[in-house]
Amino acid sequence: MKLNSPKAPVQFVRYILVGGFNTVFGYGVFAFLNWSFTGLGPYSYMYAAVLANFIAISVAFLGYKWFVFRTRGNYLWEWIRCFGVYGSSMLIGLAGLPILVPILRPHLRNPGQAPYIAAAMLTIVTVAFSFVGHKNISFRQKLSREEANSESGMPDA
C-alpha cells in the first residue's frame, strides 16, 4: 500500500492504537521487571529493559501483523524482521538509559524514579522511527506485477 493510498490514514490510525496499547504494555512490563530486579545492582534497570523489550516486541508483532498491516503467513520471517526494526529502536533506548538515568537522578526528589522517567522519555523518540521501519521492512508486502509496473511507470506487457 502506498503512503498516499486511501487506506494509508486508516492503517496509520490502527498503528497508533496498537502502538499505544503496546507502549503502555511494554512500559508496564519494564516497570514491573525494574521493581522486581531492585537489588540486583546499580544497573538492574538494564536487565529489566532487555527482558521487557523482548516481551513487548513479541506482543507488538502480533498486533501489527493481525490488525495494522494484515499480512498473511511468514510468521517467523516477519517476526525476525520486526525484531530487526525494534532492535534498532531498542539500541536507542539501551544507549540512552545509561546516559539519562545518571543525569536525572540528582535532579529528582526520589532518585529511584530516574529509570522510569528516562524510559518514558526514550519511548517518545522511537515511535515514528518504528512505524517507518515496520511499514517498509517488517511487514513489507510484495507488489503484484501490475502494482510494480504502475510504481515504476512501465506499461503492462
What report would you give on this structure?
It is a single chain. With 157 residues, the chain is mainly α. 75% of the residues lie in helices and 0% in strands. The chain is built from five helices and no strands. The chain has helices at residues 8-36, 44-68, 75-104, 114-138, 145-152. Helix 1 (8-36) runs antiparallel to helix 4 and helix 2 (44-68) runs antiparallel to helix 3. 24% of the residues are buried.
Q: Nutshell version of this structure?
A:
With 157 residues, the protein is mainly α. The chain has helices at 8-36, 44-68, 75-104, 114-138, 145-152.
Ends apart, CA distance between termini: 22 Å
Q: Whole-number radius of gyration? A: 19 Å
Figure out the total of helices: 5
Please trace the helix and strand order, writing H or E for each element.
HHHHH
Tally of individual domains: 1
- Percent helix, as a range, is over 70%
- Count of DSSP E strands? 0
Stretches where pLDDT is under 50 for at least 5 consecutive residues are none
